[in-house]
Design a protein that fits this description.
single chain; 240 residues; mainly beta; UDP N-Acetylglucosamine Acyltransferase, domain 1; 11-stranded mixed beta sheet; 2 helices; 7% helix
Length: 240
């Protein structure tokens, strides 16, 4: 168990490395070998760098696909000029790129790789072994299931679920495989995407359920599928 350096109500592991011009709110705990780079802002009552209870070896024995998502080393790394808001929890073996925004009470599990400029909204849940490319937006209360891959400049509206398992079983990882979301995709609120691939530049309307692959440049809304117009693709490029 870590012996913490106590700074008022802030607790920091002696193994952690804190950069220059870092602001840390009251009640925050930073554990293990966490690395907080220059210019990072961390809100009140956050927990960073604690071990995730996920059983890595057992999971990988069941489904070798998870190997592709392993984060090297044994630390949480938050890169320059990222802001982490009140109550967020970021586990060990997570890498967060430069200039990201992590909302209040967001929950980011182990072995996640988050690119530069990503926004994670308040109360969003990012499961273990997730990859999110740069400049994507995941808004409030969305759930990103394990092994999901999200491309660059993807926009995910509030209350979206990316599910890695059709039946939500928690007993086995044998057949779990998260959705793959291509670059510049937009997903409307209350939609559910289950273990499939969404092609780049596609648009998914609100309250949709998709469990089969969607080709590049398609629009799906209320059960109908059509090709995205040139204007819609241009809007996807310029929207974020």
């Amino acid at each position: 168990m870590d012996k913490y350096r106590r700074c008022g109500s802030i607790f920091i592991s002696p193994k952690a490395r804190i950069g220059k011009n870092v602001s840390i709110g009251e009640g925050t705990r930073i554990a293990g070998n966490a690395v907080i780079e220059d210019g990072v802002t961390i809100g009140d009552y956050c927990k960073i760098g604690f071990d995730d209870p996920v059983r890595e070896k057992a999971i990988i024995r069941q489904n070798s696909y998870y190997k592709d998502f392993l984060v090297a080393g044994n630390k949480c790394l938050i890169k320059k000029n990222t802001s982490v808001h009140d109550g967020a929890r970021i586990f060990n073996k997570v890498t967060i790129g430069e200039g990201c925004r992590i909302g209040d009470n967001a929950f980011i599990r182990g072995h996640c790789k988050i690119g530069a400029g990503v926004t994670v909204g308040f109360c969003a849940y990012i499961g273990p072994f997730v990859e999110i490319a740069g400049d994507s937006v995941i808004l409030n209360s969305s759930v990103i299931g394990s092994t999901s891959k999200i491309g660059k400049k993807v926009f995910i509206s509030p209350c979206v679920m990316l599910a890695e398992n059709k039946y939500m079983s928690i007993s086995s990882y044998k057949k779990r495989k998260g959705p793959v979301i291509g670059d510049y995709v937009r997903i409307g609120c209350l939609s559910t995407i289950i273990s499939c691939k969404i092609g780049r530049f596609s648009i998914i309307g609100a309250n949709s359920v998709i469990a089969k692959d969607l080709p590049e440049g398609m629009v799906y809304f209320q059960g109908t599928l059509r090709k995205a117009t040139a204007g819609e693709k241009k809007e996807s490029l310029q929207g974020l």
